[in-house]
Structure formats: C-alpha cells, structure tokens
Design a protein that fits this description.
This protein is mainly α. 63% of the residues lie in helices and 8% in strands.
C-alpha cells in the first residue's frame, strides 16, 4: 500500500477554491436564471444540448452522457421539461427500445428568451471577473482535467 500524498498548501487552496467557486457560481446562476426566465440551470443545460444537436434531438443515453448524469437522473430531469411542453420524448423508429429527447418549439422559444439574461449573468459572475490571460489559463487547465477524466467530450472545453 502506498503512502498518502497529502495536498500541500497551494494544492489545498486551489482545490478548495475550485469547490467553493463552483458551488457559489452554480447557486448564483441558478437563482438568477430561475428568477429571470423561470428555467433552472440544470433544465437550461438540457435545452442547450438539445438546441445544438442535429434536428434538435438526442438519444436519451447520449444526452445523459453529455450531462454527466445517470439515465434515471435524466428521466427525472426531463419529466418537468416534458410536463412544461419544452421537450418531448419520441420513440426511435429504427430501434423500438431507444427514445429521443426532442426540443419543442416552445422549448426553443423559452431558451432563446432566457439566453441573453443568462449570458449577462455568466459575464457578471464569471467572465468579467477574470483577465483574458486568466480565462485562457483556466480553460487550458479545465481541458487538461477533463481530458484526463474522460468526461465532457465537447470541443468547447478542449485545449487549443
């Protein structure tokens, strides 16, 4: 059994800072997005993924992978979006066992209406607090972590 490599002060500060900043940022953005549009941050994320997909639809399994949640977690998350008319579940014609999550016209309209305020909130609480050099370093650092974990294959988070 190997000896534990405890975090040094810089490593501890970076780790705890990441965890604290993430929690505060997500809570702030969720509260403001909900107040400005009536859409929670997790629901907004679903709508964004669907809006960017071919034909604005994704297999449930693919959407769960992109969101980094379990299939049952996705089912629960979609229940509210389906009930609100922003997403539909559609049986896959080629594979009767497969189901697509499909962005509806209402979902696209609600996303389009929510996006300007959300982008302003992201700028206010995140982007505008960092220099371009800090943003570049952070983007590169996150891409390195993501590449090492096999998570989030989106090209937006890859190092250039």
């Amino acid at each position: 059994m190997s000896e534990t490599r405890w975090l040094d002060p810089l490593e501890t500060r970076a780790w705890r800072g990441l965890m604290c900043a993430h929690a505060r940022l997500v809570a702030q953005l969720d509260a403001e997005l909900l107040a400005s549009s009536g859409i929670s941050l997790p629901d907004y994320e679903v709508l964004v993924h669907l809006s960017e997909a071919d034909s604005q639809r994704l297999r449930m399994s693919e959407l769960a992978l992109r969101l980094e949640i379990s299939p049952s977690g996705l089912t629960r998350r979609l229940d509210g979006l389906v009930a609100s008319g922003m997403v539909e579940r559609v049986q896959c014609p080629e594979d009767r066992r497969g189901t697509f999550a499909v962005l509806t016209e209402l979902g696209a309209e609600r996303l389009e209406a929510a996006a300007p305020a959300h982008v302003a909130q992201v700028r206010r609480w995140f982007v505008d607090r960092l220099t371009r050099d800090q943003l570049c370093a952070l983007a590169d650092a996150m891409a390195s972590i993501i590449a090492g974990s096999g998570a989030c294959s989106s090209s937006e988070v890859r190092a250039s």
